[in-house]
Amino acid sequence: MPELRHDPIQKRWVIIASERGRKPYDSSLSSEIQAGGFCPFCEGHEGKTPPEITAIRHNGSGPNQPGWQVRVVPNKFPALRIEGGLDRRGEGIHDRMNGVGAHEVIIETPQHDLNLADMPVEQIEKVIWIYRARLADLHRDGRFRYVLIFKNHGQAAGASLPHPHTQLIATPVTPKIISGELWSAREHYHDKERCLFCDLIQQELERGERLILADDRFVALAPFASRFPFEVFLAPRHHYHSFAKLSDEMIHPLAVALKDVLLRIKKCLRDPAYNFVIHTAPNTEAAPRRSAYWDTIEADFHWHIEIMPRLTRVAGFEWGTGFYINPTSPEEAAKYLREVAL
């Protein structure tokens, strides 16, 4: 069983997952698959993954059979386990609990070499629909406080398999980075009775110099204090606090905007490795529910996607200080991405 341990100095939780030490991370596996070897995510190899959780399928195809369009399976080497109770306990000044959570893989397409940026919008819509469905379903489990959806594209971004896929991890605590965003949003709202993200988006729309795209529903921009070269912030233009509550009519415009941004990054930077993460509201119904737990979150938080091309390495200074050194200004990055011919 994995375990969560708390660091009282940095105020962060760490997952101790010894079983993942047996995962075949090695680039040799990825290289073998890229060279035409066996891939467990390809259609026809459904028996080589754990039994599927859900899928979007063609009419007539059954579970764990060919005929799927998007497929969700448990991670074969999970960071956290779905079974069991948390068993929170102390150890001197430290805190620990069982590594209970969920770790799933969303296989985005049966096509092994189809980059998310190159998928038809209709296929990206299906992927987004699955994101929303899995998030909403896991929020029904009172053990989970947060669900992070993230994508690692390319070996430099941490992908051990090249077949297009996204991952999802549900945790019994709210991650420190998310908590920081939540507190900043809450303080801004309590001071001004406005959403911090809405204010930032409006400011960027007015100035335009860091804007990459904007339509009636979504906006993409290079953050003013970008940590990484060509980092992109993609969010609804109007206020929505939870990705789990994404309306049906928002799915198509999000698919269009996400494809647009990823295609710009691919063309401008020659298909770099990248990570993207969806930051959404935590599960406010997780048990036990503390008094006034994110009590204004529907008004103060704004879900968004952060896309981070892996063009530089995080080294000693960044690890030691938390400062990031970005050699490309966000204004310059936004200009390059805006000018990409699609």
Specify the structural class. alpha+beta
- Multimerization status: single chain
Question: Which CATH class applies here?
Answer: Alpha Beta
Helix content: 25-40%
If helices are DSSP runs of H or I spanning 4 or more residues, what is the number of helices?
A: 8
**Termini gap:** 48 Å
CATH architecture: 2-Layer Sandwich
Strand line-up of the largest beta sheet? 3-4-7-9-8-13-14-12-11-10
CATH superfamily: HIT-like
Q: Judging from the principal axes of the Cα atoms, what is the shape?
A: globular
Specify the biggest β-sheet: 10 strands, antiparallel
Low-confidence stretches: 25-29
Rg result = 20 Å
Strand content: 15-25%
Question: Mean pLDDT, rounded to whole units?
Answer: 93
Order of secondary-structure elements: EEHEEEEEHEEHHEEEHEHEHH
Indicate the CATH topology: HIT family, subunit A
Count up the domains: 1
Per DSSP E runs of 2 or more residues, the count of β-strands stands at 14
